[in-house]
Specification:
TIM Barrel; 8-stranded parallel β-barrel; binds flavin-adenine dinucleotide; Methylenetetrahydrofolate reductase; Mehydrof_redctse-like; MTHF_reductase_bac; methylenetetrahydrofolate reductase [NAD(P)H] activity
């Protein structure tokens, strides 16, 4: 069976907490290697990630990895958070640059994810396994695709153990990316990030923000289904399961699911892949 990981976001209300608990309970049945919890930039949102990581670990018994981004933070703030994670038994961190809301505010002491990864290694040696982000379709702010590949390699050279990709629906983007970084000497596992499709208008919004391409044939079919939620879900699960099959057949070492704290869309894909 392919190794799995599931990504959640930190809930902020009681309803959202209950939703996360339902999703974590259902997805735990697939015995993920680990789950991860995203990180929002700045202020009071900081503690939500650590609280959620603790909850997933203690209440659900799931090994949980916090995402940690460096934009907007000082070295001292990041140092404190790393100390906390070490103290509560965190073994893995997804290390990112993050995005400043509308380009405002203090950019942070550390500028790029590679700087954060080097900082974690300098402060904590090999205490954490570090995952970096990868962009098979090129990061939207990159000046060009080749410099983006070099910047990706810099994160691995700084000490990342593996990478998780931004989601994509064209498997060739992943295979080309893996080939390109292997040619640069990168040997670490590159794990595809998988976004199940359940709400197409939300997906379109996300994709515009993060620069992920939705192939025309998928968009056209989704538009035709319009308000038929069952048809959207079934088609979305078929498309994403077929994508996963091609990725695994082509050598993808694991699959990382962006769950958006919902079990159903991820389960629909996993069932089609024969995972119970
Ligand atoms: P970097 O690797 O630092 O790259 C950012 C950009 O800078 C790229 O265009 C790169 O080419 C360029 N660059 C890098 N180094 C240099 C250099 N030396 N000189 C010039 N240009 C350079 N965001 C959150 O806020 N919270 C999350 O929890 C979160 N989780 C994520 C999980 C995954 C798996 C992924 C793929 C993304 C996630 N993101 C999250 C989004 C991420 O923070 C954004 O995509 C962000 O814009 C880039 O982060 P990065 O770590 O890839 O940055």
């Amino acid at each position: 069976m392919t190794a799995l990981s599931f990504e959640f976001y930190p809930p902020k209300t009681d309803d959202q907490r209950a939703q996360l608990d339902r999703a974590a309970t259902r997805l735990k049945a697939y015995a993920p290697d680990y789950v991860s919890c995203t990180f929002g930039a700045g202020g009071s949102t900081l503690s939500y990630t650590s609280e959620t990581v603790r909850h997933l670990n203690q209440h659900h018994g799931l090994p949980a990895a916090p995402h940690l981004s460096c934009v907007g933070g000082t070295r001292e703030e990041i140092r404190e958070l790393l100390k906390l994670y070490r103290a509560i038994g965190v073994k893995r961190i997804v290390a990112l640059r993050g995005d400043l809301p509308s380009g405002m505010g203090y950019p942070g002491d550390l500028r790029y994810a590679a700087d954060l990864i080097a900082f974690i290694r300098a402060e904590h040696g090999d205490a954490f396994r570090i995952e970096a982000a990868a962009y098979p379709e090129t990061h939207p702010q990159a000046s060009d695709a080749l410099s983006d590949l070099r910047h990706f390699k810099a994160k691995i050279d700084a000490g990342a153990d593996a990478a998780i990709t931004q989601y994509f629906y064209n498997p060739d983007a992943y295979f080309h990316f893996v080939d390109a970084v292997r040619r640069l000497g990168v040997e670490v596992p590159i794990i595809p990030g998988i976004m199940p499709i359940s709400n197409f208008s939300q997906l379109r919004r996300f994709s515009e923000q993060c620069g992920a391409e939705i192939p025309r044939w998928i968009a056209k079919r989704m538009q035709a289904y319009a308000d038929d939620a069952d048809a959207v879900r079934a088609f979305g699960a078929d498309v994403v399961a077929a994508l996963c099959e091609r990725l695994v057949a082509g050598g993808a070492p694991a699959l990382h699911f962006y769950t958006l704290n919902l079990a159903r869309p991820t389960r629909a894909v996993l069932q089609r892949l024969g995972h119970g």
